[in-house]
């Protein structure tokens, strides 16, 4: 797609700080650098989000995540952890609509990054949890 910024980066029409490339993926530094080494891994094929992936492409793209993660760990021995994030659709904070995976090195509790998982365990009964699981399971099996 000509108007997609990530497609333009992959095509070298827009410069980037490449960290890895092969036939299926392109990985480059996110210009925001939430933390040092913050990297984006994108499929070369334009897919909007996780909902657009074919199984083979998903396998190819997600198989590259450990390779780039290990490279970050070796490049930054002081790294204490790594967040891997994939935002899908605007409500989930996707801002570029070419699927991408964020690899965000963590160096300490003072990093300018946080994630909050609310605990709503008490909001659902066992029966409600089972009904939710069954509803999803039915769709997975189709």
UniProtKB/TrEMBL annotation:
Organism: Enterococcus ureilyticus
Residue ranges of every copy of the HIT domain listed in the record: 5-115
Active site residues according to the UniProt entry: 100 (tele-amp-histidine intermediate)
Signal peptide feature range: none
BP term (GO), one: nucleotide metabolic process
Single annotated GO MF: catalytic activity
CDD domains linked: HINT_subgroup
Span of the annotated motif Histidine triad motif: 98-102
Name the record gives this protein: Histidine triad protein
Top-level division of the source organism's lineage: Bacteria
């Amino acid at each position: 797609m000509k108007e997609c910024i990530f497609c333009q980066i992959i095509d070298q029409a827009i410069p980037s700080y490449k960290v890895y490339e092969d036939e299926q993926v392109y990985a480059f530094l996110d210009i925001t650098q939430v933390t040092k080494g913050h990297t984006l891994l994108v499929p070369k094929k334009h897919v909007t989000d996780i909902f657009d992936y074919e199984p083979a492409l998903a396998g190819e793209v997600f198989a590259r995540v450990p390779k780039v993660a290990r490279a970050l760990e070796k490049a930054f021995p002081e790294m204490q952890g790594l967040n891997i994030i994939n935002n899908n659709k605007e409500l989930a904070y996707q801002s570029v609509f070419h699927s991408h995976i964020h690899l965000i090195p963590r160096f300490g509790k003072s990093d300018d990054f946080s994630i909050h998982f609310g605990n709503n365990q008490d909001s659902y009964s066992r029966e409600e949890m089972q009904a939710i699981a069954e509803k999803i399971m039915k769709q997975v099996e189709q």
